[in-house]
Amino acid sequence: SNLNVLLQKQIDGLIIAPSSESPEHLNKVLNKKLKILFIGRMIDSQDVTSIIIDNEHGARMAVQHLINKGHKQIAFIGGNEDLSITKQRLKGYKNAFKKNNLTIDESLIRAGNLKRESGHLQLQELFKSNSKFTAVFAANDLLALGAIQAIKENGLSIPEDIAVIGFDDIEFASLPEIQLTTVAQPKYEMGKLAFETLFKQIKGDGDIFQKVLLKPDLIIRGTS
Predict the structure, then answer these.
(1) Half-sphere exposure (Cβ direction) of 72: Cα atoms closer than 13 Å
(2) Assign residue 134 a region: left if phi > 0, alpha if psi is -120 to 50, beta otherwise?
């Protein structure tokens, strides 16, 4: 694998964007005397530095935007309930309701996985249950894309009938035919900070283990 190739070279540190939060396949890295920095996800191990965004804050911003637009019945669609991204973004969703003294309808909270197909399925299930909602907050942009598909299949317009907000601001989100309102990760800032932090640690100038939270931005486009 690419990781094995890297470990055969004389490197001092690694910046890794893991695809999961319990990366057993990375144990070979964690057990070596390398400076390791994880970006994008909080890793279970306490013995590493992680740079992540404030997921709770980002979700709260997104839902507050919908509330400011007059929405009170807002569905939440997420990934696996045990995933920290789902937990943190759901927490932000709920905190926005609490801050505005609005009742949370637990029947509008759904979980699946973080893929587009799951967003489509979760929305179709909400429609089949005759749930009443005027907006959807999706835990990532792929889920939002699936939700948009389901809304259109039910003959409804976005945002006139149902508004949609995603999370991550991945490449397709700004396409003219999508124009997805979403929470954007400060990718450049994360990358710059990751490099600077790791470089300091390699030189012995920085704290060994840190958990760094960066604030995301809400990018308002056409779906809300």
Answers:
(1) 4
(2) alpha
